[in-house]
## 1
Amino acid sequence: MLTVRYTTWDGTQRTHLSPRRSFERLAELLGVTENVEQALEWLLRKGAELDGVEVQGLDALLEQVRDALRAHFRDVDLRSAFAELWRRLEEALSRERAAIERLPAGDERAARHRALADLPTRLSEALEALGGAALLDAEARRIVDELLERLDDLRDLEEFSRRYGERFHGAESVSFDEAVELMREMERWRALEEALARGDLDGLDPGELEALLGAGAVRSVQLLRQMLQTLWQGGYLAQREGRVQLSPKGIRRIGQLALRDIYQGLLRDRAGGHETDYRGLAEIRPDQTKRYVHGEPLALDLVGTLKKAVSRGGGLPLELRPEDFEVHACDHTTTSATILLLDMSWSMSWEGRFAAAKRVALALEALIRARFPKDFFAVVGFYTRAVEIRVRDLPSASWNMGDPFTNLQDGLRMASRLLARHPSRNRHVIVITDGQPTAYFAGGRLHCEWPLSFGGISVRAAQETLREVERVTRQGIVINTFMLDDSPSLRAFVERMTRINKGRALYTRPDRLGEYLLVDYLTKKRKRV
């Protein structure tokens, strides 16, 4: 027999979070940092809104804790907390001094007066000294013993006052017992503050969290744990060499998300494109139709054709004329081999340039893998030297601070070698850069040179790079350059490069790079007819 029990929703029940949605939030953060562990830390700190569920991050919870602490500091005056105990101690000392005065004059009487006069100024230490002393007055002894029962709380409150006393500047006076209770409460707040600041999810006590911040905080922490679990269970993360990194599935998903975001930008902005003269396989577009032109593929839209014939009127049999033919639009595709040359010099760290370029590389790889699987695509990074970047390493790739020079010549050399292994009628190199060359190889040796002046050019590096452009051009490779800086020296260099190669050059911002580059690539792939 099946039994179903219904309970009132209190916000703490388990909510299912989609691994894909959790990863989308992580992907947003990976657009800012290439470090997966740092992105996960930010995910816990910032929280997310997933599937209609608001997940508070640790920073939001931490701010609630600090607001509570600030409220205590703002409202309470801690200076009055010790007044009652000092008054009781002074009462005991007064009675003991009176008892000492009743002793005959002599050494004992003088010694007892000196002992009382030399008591420590700290309340807890004075009580400890009196605790081991033989007091003459029975009532004084009783008062001291009574105070000694609170010695542990007194020591703790004195230390608490030493550390935080100056921060209490409120008007509300508190008794000793109230101050101790406040101290214990604030210790709980402090412990929670430290756990949240460390990001220690496992160290958070749900009962304590609910008592201090409420059931909503417990629910947020549960959902944060669930987000991490779904990322691992969904197969998006992997452990490699003791570090958390994206799995192959995670890398593919990053590219798909980047591609989706760029496409959304294209749909919003209706960006234009360029046509290509090369024809290949045709892809029918069922969403768009046009009037048939003789010589084009007859991908007939039967319903549209019959509607046009019927609209002229007449009976059966239906008369069809050439102008009635409505056909589906087609995209003619052609295979290509493409190398993305990615500038990894230090200046690419400015204004989010490298993050945008890396995001575009992932999107382009995802596009080619999904829609043009026969195409060849590779990424080459260039700084002082050029290196091939595997797709799995692309999310963690970063600009290079240790090798600050820009060796586009070596990047073009490596690109031409890779393209030689993958013959294609259309071979392209896409260069994303924000600076002109400052390094080159000559005679088998690496040479680096700073520009002659700020914003100037490195003459020999530019010359050797342009010679490499000439060699690449003779191989039939087209170079398209996307510039992320519009300095006169870079523009002048790129203009010389495009004159030699007959490719294209476009200046764009990091936030629009993806849209321009994707349009440029797709329009080389097809012409709509």
## 2
Amino acid sequence: MSRESLSPSGEGGGFRGRARRASLNHDTWGLRGPQRELQGLSWVVVDEAVVAEVRAIGAATADAPGVHERDQVATRVESLLADPDDPELQDEFVRWAERTAARAPTAEMRSAARMLLVLLRDGAPPAVLHTVDPPISFHVNPRVAVAVGIVVACLTAGGVMAARVVSTPTLHVSGPPTDVPVGPATDGRLVFKASGSPALLRRERWTFDGHDVTKLVQHENGTAVFLPGHLPEGAHQLSVTAGGGFLGASGRKTIDFTVDLTPPFLDVPGPFHTNAWQPLHVSGRTEDDARVTVAGYKAIVDDGGFSVVVPAPQPRVITVVATDPAGNSTVEQQPITVTPRRPPAPIRAVHVTADAWANADLRRGVLALIRQHRINTVEIDLKDEGGIAGWNPPVPLARTIGAAQPIFDLAATVKRLHAMGVRVIGRLVCFRDPIFATAAWNGGRRDEVVQTPSGAEYAGYGGFTNFANPVVRAYNIAIAVAAAKVGVDDILYDYVRRPDGPISTMRFPGLHESPSAAIVEFLRESRIALRPYHVFVGASVFGIAAIRPAEVAQDIPQMARQVDYIAPLDYPSHWGPGDYGVADPNAEPYQIVVRTLGDFEREVTGTPARVVPWLQDFSLGVTYGPYQVRQEIAAARQDGIDEFILWNPGAVYTKDALDPNAPKESP
């Protein structure tokens, strides 16, 4: 606790104000002499020796002929001492003494005036008079000295003359802020400063914790500076005193403060658990005067207890910080376990394009898998890699640019599959969209397209739209919302990334953050837009994203905080020799899948998302049949994942790889 003592003579202290009662337990600006109580006010007696000298000089100086009675030394002294705290009277007395010291008709009067100036204006103690070389011999009348002693005794006893607070040196001393303990951020950096005239600063005496540190005080440009350095915990006191006030008054200022370097107590029971998209209640205890934040949210501390509701999605680790008034902080972290949302039955899905579903033979093959209980979910394209939305969505921009095409009836498809107890996932290819990219570029809306550093259209994939552009984002979300209104159960985003390849070859107009942060923000916007329809939201990601997220701007932990599941494209044929320590991943599907999905499981821990992998049911370099596909499914289950989506570009699937035990959702 810092505390500055105030002058009992009022704001700023010194000669001009009447004395007020000083606060208890505070050091006060004092005068050399005992402190008295008079009519409820604190009064301070001036220095007896100074008063005696002043009166003796006045009484012992002979009257000079031709000098007006009011300007005699004795008369001037008596007039001053009758009301010594009157600033006008003091100024008038000093002016008279200066004139008299220079022009008095006798050397005796000039000498007396000079000695009065030494005592009163220059603030020297009586002993200094012995160094003054008066032009005449000066002797104090013993009778006068006795009389002065009696007067001083009366003053000390609270006699006839009220002992008024007279001019004290005004000390301007600054240090630590009032009522704020010194903590780790300021310990070692404390600076105490005093300002004033050079004469005042030379008279100052500095003590710190009872030790004289005046020699350690540095003077520069009218300022005295003291640097105490690093201090131990506990109470400390700085005192600055200076004499030389009117009638021998001295000034004193003290600053009491406390150094606190001990972090506050903090107890946060954990670890925490919550369900996906539900708020998390965090409570704990700390010190009464501490400030607490929980995952960045300010908590109210009441009698040491605190409680905060952290909205979803929460961070993977909850950080609680308690900070005391001195700035000491205690940090505690607790992991959070989030139970993801899950459909009524684990997903066993196959991918179907719009054209495949519209093809009777291919559709018949998928329906057969359903009837044989080998699958319970159909994943169907809402917008494919070519930018075609084959269900003719009621999105004006899609119809304007020719993306909306009536290939199949989504509403009828959803109704039919739901009647069979089958879940419907709508796959929506986001940013690989040649139809949109061509229309935007030709229409002069070039900021909606990924560009080369020179400003040309980026040619990769035949057209990649700019994920940082709000129009591009809104277009994809509009198609997703339209499908949710029709009744699809999930929206699974694909190509929710930047183009792969050197990022130095690409430019994203309007991007003010990292590409991965912009992808996460798109998913957040989409989740909020789809929330009223209670659909599940998933994001397809590259298999390498778990270990090399920057290659395609897919930060798995951050993406997982915005979706219900992450769907890695974990095709063995897409891994190179030696990846994950597997010599030939395409020929060893179990080994590559079990190792890679283990990484994804770790990446989504503590988020609302689960892992639903894409698995390979096609041949590329190695012939894939029932054994290979079963190996992939078994590897996923080894990692605790009992869900999958099979991919075959032609929508023809290996039925013997699928057990006829896929649980159905209730129709």
